[in-house]
Design brief:
The chain is of the alpha+beta class. It has one domain: 2,3-Dihydroxybiphenyl 1,2-Dioxygenase, domain 1 (Roll), CATH 3.10.180. It is built from 5 helices and 16 strands. A hairpin with a 5-residue loop joins strand 11 and strand 12.
Length: about 280
C-alpha cells in the first residue's frame, strides 16, 4: 500500500490529576494557549463528562483531561507514550529560561537529537503529572508570529511485537518504514514516517507501562490521525479490522463531540487511537 496522502496527526489527549495546575504549566511555562474548555456546565456533569482543556499547538490540539483516578508514577524520563511538538528557536530559549527560573526538575537540557527521526535540537521533559513531551526546535528562520509553536512533530508508543506493529502501521496506514535502531534505553525501535513528514516511533517492550493506557484505561487518553473524507475513513475502518485492530474500542463515548466524524480503535497492544475526518470537531 502507498502512503495515505492526507493522513496526519492532528491531536493527542491524555489525563492529568489537577486541571488548573496543568493549565498553569502548559500556558505559563510552555506557552501553549488554550483553544477551548469543555465539561464545565451542569449538563456536562449530568452526562458524566469530565472537565478537559484543549490547547492550541499552531492550529492542532493537545487535550488534557481531568482523570477519574490517580495516575501511576513513571520514573523514567524517556518513557512512552511521548508527544513531540515543533517549536521556534526563540520559543525554545524562552521556555528553557522559564523552566530554570521555576526550578522545574523533570527535563533534560536541549541537545541535538540523535538517531533516526527528527534531527534538530530537542528538549525532553515530563509535565507535573508524568506525561512525556518533547520539544523539537525548528530552523532559526522559521517564524510563527507570536506563537512559540510550529506544529505536532511526532508520537512515540510502546509495543510488544515490533515486526507485527510495523506491519500494522505500514500496511493499514501506509506509513513509510525508515529503519530500526536501539533507543536511549537500549530498546529495539522502529522509525516510521507519514507523508507530511510527521514521525511515529515504536519501542519494543515486554509489557506496556500502565501510563500507556492500554485499551483506554484512562478517560480521554488517545492519539488521533486525521483523514480527508468519509470514504477514506470507511476504507481505513475495514483495513484496521482486517489487520487485527480493535474498532470502536472506546466505551466512553462522551469524549467524542456530537459533530465529530470518526472512530476510536486500538492496535494489537491496546494503544488508544482515533481516526477523524478533516473539518469535524
Amino acid at each position: 500500500m502507498g502512503l495515505e496522502p492526507s493522513l496526519r496527526f492532528d491531536h493527542f489527549a491524555y489525563p492529568v490529576d489537577d486541571l488548573v495546575r496543568a493549565e498553569d504549566f502548559y500556558t505559563g511555562i510552555l506557552e501553549i494557549p488554550i483553544y477551548e474548555r469543555r465539561g464545565l456546565r451542569v449538563r456536562d456533569v449530568q452526562a458524566g463528562t469530565l472537565p478537559r482543556t484543549f490547547l492550541n499547538v499552531a492550529g492542532s490540539r493537545v487535550g488534557i483531561f481531568l482523570g477519574r483516578e490517580p495516575l501511576p508514577e513513571h520514573e523514567q524520563r524517556h518513557g512512552c507514550p511521548l508527544v513531540g511538538m515543533e517549536i521556534t528557536a526563540d520559543g525554545m530559549t524562552r521556555i528553557v529560561r522559564r523552566l530554570q527560573q521555576s526550578n522545574y526538575q523533570t527535563y533534560d537540557e536541549p541537545r541535538p537529537r540523535v538517531g533516526l527521526g527528527p534531527k534538530n535540537i530537542s528538549l525532553t521533559l515530563q509535565d507535573p503529572f508524568g506525561n512525556h513531551l518533547e520539544l523539537l526546535q525548528k530552523d532559526r528562520a522559521v517564524s510563527n508570529g507570536a506563537s512559540a509553536y510550529v506544529g505536532i512533530s511526532h508520537l512515540e508508543l510502546e509495543v510488544t511485537d515490533l515486526d507485527r506493529s510495523v506491519d500494522f502501521y505500514t500496511n493499514v496506514f501506509g506509513l513509510k518504514l525508515l529503519g530500526h535502531e536501539n533507543d536511549a534505553l537500549g530498546r529495539a525501535t522502529a522509525c516510521l514516517q507519514l507523508v507530511g513528514g510527521q514521525w511515529l516511533m515504536l519501542h519494543k517492550v515486554d509489557a506496556l507501562h500502565p501510563r500507556s493506557s492500554a485499551f483506554y484505561r484512562f478517560e480521554g487518553q488517545h492519539y488521533a490521525f486525521m483523514t480527508p473524507t468519509e470514504e477514506a475513513l470507511s476504507s481505513l475502518r475495514e483495513s484496521i479490522a482486517r489487520a487485527g485492530g480493535k474498532i470502536d474500542a472506546l466505551e466512553q463515548t462522551q469524549v467524542r463531540s456530537a459533530t465529530a466524524h470518526g472512530l476510536y480503535f486500538t492496535d494489537f497492544d491496546g494503544n488508544p487511537l482515533q481516526l477523524q475526518v478533516e473539518g469535524s470537531e
